[in-house]
Amino acid sequence: MRILLAEDDALLGDGLRAGLRQHGFLVDWVRDGHAAQRELRAGVYAAAVLDLGLPLLDGLDVLQRVRQANVATPVLVLTARDAVPDRVRGLDSGADDYVVKPVDLQELAARLRALVRRSHGQPQEVLRVQDVSLDPAARQVTMAGEPVALSTREFDLLQTLMLNAGRVLSREQLEQHLYSWGHEVDSNAIEVHIHHLRRKLRPEFIVTLRGVGYTVVRPPGQG
């Protein structure tokens, strides 16, 4: 999952980026409020971690402006402002979660997974489509109860498709979900990963709509 980190403290930001990467997140890091607002308005992130004490534009102002622009990206506020009125202002301004520094990285990763899951209408931690199950926390996949070994990129692609089950995603949309800044993307990279997933799962699990994109289909009655 690709997330945005908005934190001006270089040491903390570097530690958060490294730690979240270890938990399987793709992290784009910005250090001021203007950059945070610009990136959030681009709408390519599964979630964002937002510090309130940002230079150029305060985090609360960032949050209020992107919500006024109808940006629905889940936002977790991570701040040293721990007074109850500060928390209330943060949540009332559009934050989906509010965490006071310092924070345990495992807890932060779990909260981000929960935000992403809820934003896609997924009540359970483990994603299930047909007989395929994907555990984002353990980064494990099974099909009909049997483990399936996937590369990091294959796992991220499958997770994106399963989170959006029933929705068709274009190649460009999938690239935005799977690649953070500084990564060169081969023109056929998504097609190659789709091919590998079909071989490891089964060909019909991922459906191609020619000229449109890819989807996985949840059977009627499956939650």
TrEMBL record:
Protein name stated in the entry: Two-component system response regulator
GO cellular component: cytosol; protein-DNA complex
InterPro entries, sorted: CheY-like_superfamily, OmpR/PhoB-type_DNA-bd, Sig_transdc_resp-reg_receiver, WalR-like, WH-like_DNA-bd_sf
Keywords: Cytoplasm, DNA-binding, Phosphoprotein, Transcription, Transcription regulation, Two-component regulatory system
Transmembrane segments: none
Domain of life where this protein originates: Bacteria
Entry-linked PROSITE patterns: OMPR_PHOB, RESPONSE_REGULATORY
